[in-house]
Amino acid sequence: MNAAVQLDVQDGVALMTLSRPETGNAVSQDVADGLLAAALVCESDDKVRSVLLTAQGTAFCVGGDVRAFAEAGDGMPSLVRRLTASLHMAVARLARMDKPLVTAVNGAAAGAGLGLAVLGDIALAARSAKFTAAYGALGLTPDAGATWLLPRLVGLRQAQRLLLLNERIDAVEAERIGLITQVVEDNALAAEALERASRLAKAPRRAFGRTRGLLYAAMANGLETQLELEAQSIAEAAGSGEGHEGVAAFVSRRSADFGSI
């Protein structure tokens, strides 16, 4: 981590915070490197059971650091290549880790910020939040997984609308089309997001990790292939400590304790 991305782990929740509010949390090389370092910790640290991604200030993330792009001049392609190398490794690890991800979108999410905002398994947004792709206005193409995520979340037509028409939508519209999970009042966002992340931290982490993997796999698999993966996964879960604890708790009519497993 670095000053641009803070990471704090408490009670199983890793709070990852974009911390360049003076720039709208624009994705500089420091931000991309910080995201990757934080993602690697979240992926590998067994004390982390869920991850909450949010940002300081009034914007979530306005996308790439356009000022740095301009200053790079003819070196802009090399700068962008280095930046996306770190950013995309971070996105991949956050998507593939066996821990659920909550995103708390506290303001504008544009460009790469859009991809980060909707990456969460649970994506919450403040009522004041706005979403836009923004790439077309700069003569650039999408990054941060936008062309992979958006069609899967909202369908091809809505993805085309967002990426080609460069429309800015509010949080209510984002919820309506399935881009986010829920709109939350601005003053309740932080508490609501932490409550969701804390709830997930108490859940069966390995079973939820398998569930995340199954959901991503389903996007490319046929029915029979997916059924076989589900059969393998539930059998493995049934033989795990989480499975034994969950079944025993159900039979005993008590709350399951997955935190120590």
TrEMBL record:
SUPFAM superfamilies per the UniProt record, alphabetical: ClpP/crotonase
UniProt keyword list: Isomerase, Peroxisome
UniProt keyword NAD present: no
InterPro entries listed in its UniProt record: ClpP/crotonase-like_dom_sf (IPR029045), ECH/Chromodomain_protein (IPR051053), Enoyl-CoA_hydra/iso (IPR001753), Enoyl-CoA_hydra_C (IPR014748)
Compartments it resides in: Peroxisome
Molecular-function GO term, any one: delta(3)-delta(2)-enoyl-CoA isomerase activity
Pfam family, one: ECH_1
Domain of life: Bacteria
PANTHER family: ENOYL-COA DELTA ISOMERASE 2 (PTHR43684:SF1), PTHR43684
UniProt similarity note: Belongs to the enoyl-CoA hydratase/isomerase family.
Protein known as: Enoyl-CoA hydratase
Naturally occurring in which organism (per UniProt): Brevundimonas subvibrioides
Taxonomic lineage from the root: Bacteria, Pseudomonadati, Pseudomonadota, Alphaproteobacteria, Caulobacterales
